[in-house]
Write a structure and sequence with these properties.
Layout: H1 2-10, H2 16-35, H3 39-53, H4 58-75, H5 78-94, H6 98-115, H7 118-134, H8 138-155, H9 159-162, H10 176-185, H11 189-198, E1 212-215, E2 221-224, E3 227-228, H12 237-248, E4 254-255, H13 256-263, H14 269-287, E5 300-303, E6 306-309, E7 315-317, H15 318-328, H16 334-342, H17 356-382, H18 386-399, H19 404-416, H20 420-438, H21 444-455
Parallel strand pairs: 1-7
Antiparallel strand pairs: 1-2, 2-3, 4-6, 5-6
Helix pairs in contact: 1-2, 2-3, 3-4, 3-5, 4-5, 5-6, 5-7, 6-7, 7-8, 10-11, 12-14, 13-14, 15-16, 15-17, 16-17, 17-18, 17-19, 18-19, 19-20, 19-21, 20-21
Length: about 450
C-alpha cells in the first residue's frame, strides 16, 4: 500500500506508475476483504481515490472516497476521512468541477481543524485557492492565499508548491501561475521568490501552469506537462514548422520577413504574411490552449516585427541537455561521455533534412556527438573493451559513415579480438564509402594503420 502512494506521487513523470499504483491498492483491497477487516480498506480506498481521480475517472474515485469516508466515520477516524475528502476535492478541482470540489474541500478543512492538523488544513486550502484563481474569483483568493503562504512559510510546507506530494498537485508547475499572481499582489513576496528559485523559475514572468518538453533528436515530439501533442494536434503543418524554426533559432530572434523566406520561399509577400499570421495564431493555440486571447504568450516573445522563444520560458529542450552533457563530460570520464552519447538518440529534426534553416544546427549537434563518441572509443580501447568499441563505432557510422576515425577504431578493436577478416572488411567499407560519397581515398593515417594490422607489424 505504501508503494502505491509512492507510485502515485511519482506518476507525473512516469504515467505507467498510475497502473502500478492501481495494482498495489487493489492487492490491499483484496487482502482486506479476505481478512474481513473493513478498516483496512480505508487507506486503500483513499489511494484508489487519488489514482482514479487525478486521471479524471471521477465516478470510480468518488465510489472509493464514499466507501472510505463511511468506514472511517463509523470507526471514529476523522483524520483519514478528511484525507480522503481532500483527495476527492482535489480530483474534482483538476476536472474543473469547482462547486463540488469546494464542498469536499470545505468538509476536509473542518475535519482537519477538528483533528488539529495544520498541514492537512493548509493543503486543502491551497486547493481551494487554486480553484478561486482558475475561476478568476480574485476577491475570494485574496482572503485565503496570503494566509496559506504565511502558514506554509512558518511550518515548512514549501514542498506543497515545489514538488509533487500526496496531498498536493501531481505537477508542481500547476501552481506557478498562482505564485506569480501572489508576487504581483505583494503577498509574501520574499517567500514566493524563494519558492520560484527552488524550481529554477526566478526569471519567469508569464507561465501557463505546465512545462513544455521538446524532443528534437531522433524524432520530434512536444509535451505540455504530461500530455503529448499528437501529430494531428498541431492542426496545421505550418504551425509545427514555425515552432521548429523558432526552436532552431532559439538564440537569435527572427524577423517576420526572415520567417516567411524560410517557410514560404516561393510565395509572394502578401501570401507569405497571411500564411505567417495563420501559422502563428495556430501555434499559440496549440502550445497554450487556455491562454486568454490577446494576452502574451509564455513561450513566444514578439518585439516589433521580430519573434523568438521567450527568455527564461519554462521549456526543456533535449538538444540543450545533450550539449550540456557533452560539454560537461570530462575527457577522461568514460561514464559521463557515455551518458552524453546516450542522450543523443538520433539526428536533429530528421523530418527537416532538406530544410536549409535546420542544417547548421543539425551539423553542430552531430559534431558534438561524433567528438564525444570518438573520445569514448579511445578510452574504451585503452580499457580493452573491444566489443563496446565496435558497438559504439557502428552507431557512429550510422550517423556519419564518412567519419574515418570510427573505421580506424573498428580495425583496432577487431585486430585485438583476433578477427583480421573484419579488419579488412572495415577498411574496404571505409574506402568504398569515401570513394562513392566524397570521391576521395582513405587518409594516409587510415591506410598506414590497415597495412600495419594486416601485415602483423
Amino acid at each position: 500500500m505504501r508503494q502505491g502512494h509512492a507510485l502515485n506521487v511519482s506518476a507525473n513523470s512516469r504515467n505507467e506508475n498510475f497502473a502500478r499504483a492501481l495494482d498495489e491498492f487493489e492487492k490491499s483491497v483484496k487482502i482486506s476483504r479476505t481478512l474481513d477487516v473493513s478498516r483496512l480498506l480505508v487507506e486503500a480506498d483513499w489511494g484508489l481515490c487519488r489514482t482514479y481521480g487525478y486521471r479524471g475517472d471521477l465516478h470510480r474515485a468518488q465510489a472509493c472516497a464514499q466507501e472510505a469516508v463511511e468506514i472511517a466515520t463509523q470507526a471514529g477516524d476523522e483524520w483519514i476521512a478528511s484525507l480522503t475528502r481532500l483527495t476527492m476535492g482535489a480530483s474534482l478541482m483538476l476536472a474543473a468541477r469547482y462547486e463540488a470540489a469546494e464542498d469536499w474541500l470545505n468538509r476536509a478543512i473542518a475535519g482537519f481543524q477538528e483533528c488539529s492538523d495544520p498541514f492537512g488544513r493548509s493543503a486543502a486550502r491551497l486547493w481551494l485557492a487554486l480553484g478561486y484563481f482558475k475561476q478568476k474569483q480574485f476577491e475570494r483568493l485574496a482572503q485565503v492565499l496570503p494566509e496559506i503562504l504565511a502558514a506554509c512559510q512558518q511550518n515548512g510546507y514549501y514542498f506543497l508548491f515545489t514538488r509533487p506530494s500526496l496531498l498536493g498537485v501531481s505537477d508542481e508547475r500547476i501552481l506557478v501561475p498562482l505564485l506569480l499572481y501572489a508576487r504581483a499582489q505583494g503577498w509574501e513576496t520574499a517567500y514566493v521568490d524563494r519558492l520560484l528559485e527552488v524550481m529554477n523559475l526566478s526569471g519567469v514572468t508569464i507561465h501557463p501552469g505546465f512545462r513544455l518538453r521538446v524532443h528534437t533528436l531522433g524524432s520530434f515530439q512536444v509535451q505540455r506537462g504530461n500530455e503529448a501533442i499528437p501529430s494531428n494536434g498541431w492542426r496545421r503543418e505550418s504551425a509545427r514548422q514555425l515552432f521548429q524554426l523558432l526552436i532552431t533559432y532559439r538564440h537569435a530572434p527572427l524577423d517576420r520577413d526572415q520567417v516567411c523566406e524560410y517557410l514560404w520561399p516561393e510565395a509572394d509577400p502578401a501570401t507569405a504574411q497571411r500564411n505567417f499570421k495563420i501559422a502563428l495564431n495556430t501555434l499559440y493555440q496549440v502550445l497554450e490552449p487556455e491562454r486568454d486571447p490577446g494576452s502574451e504568450s509564455a513561450f513566444i516573445l514578439r518585439e516589433g516585427s521580430t519573434y523568438s522563444l521567450r527568455p527564461n520560458a519554462d521549456l526543456w529542450l533535449d538538444a540543450d541537455q545533450f550539449v550540456d552533457a557533452a560539454r560537461g563530460a570530462r575527457q577522461s570520464d568514460a561514464q559521463l561521455l557515455q551518458q552524453a552519447i546516450d542522450s543523443y538518440p538520433g539526428e536533429y529534426l530528421p523530418e527537416t533534412l532538406y530544410e536549409t534553416w535546420a542544417a547548421e544546427e543539425r551539423e553542430r549537434l552531430a559534431s558534438f556527438f561524433l567528438e564525444s563518441a570518438d573520445r569514448l572509443a579511445e578510452l574504451l580501447l585503452q580499457q580493452n573493451k573491444y566489443a563496446e568499441v565496435i558497438e559504439l563505432c557502428q552507431r557512429v557510422l550510422i550517423q556519419d559513415n564518412c567519419w574515418e576515425r570510427a573505421y580506424r577504431h573498428l580495425m583496432t578493436a577487431y585486430e585485438n579480438l583476433g578477427d583480421r577478416g573484419q579488419v579488412g572488411r572495415a577498411y574496404q567499407r571505409c574506402a568504398q564509402v569515401l570513394r562513392e560519397k566524397l570521391d576521395i581515398s582513405p587518409a594516409p593515417e587510415t591506410r598506414e594503420l590497415y597495412e600495419k594490422l594486416v601485415g602483423g607489424g
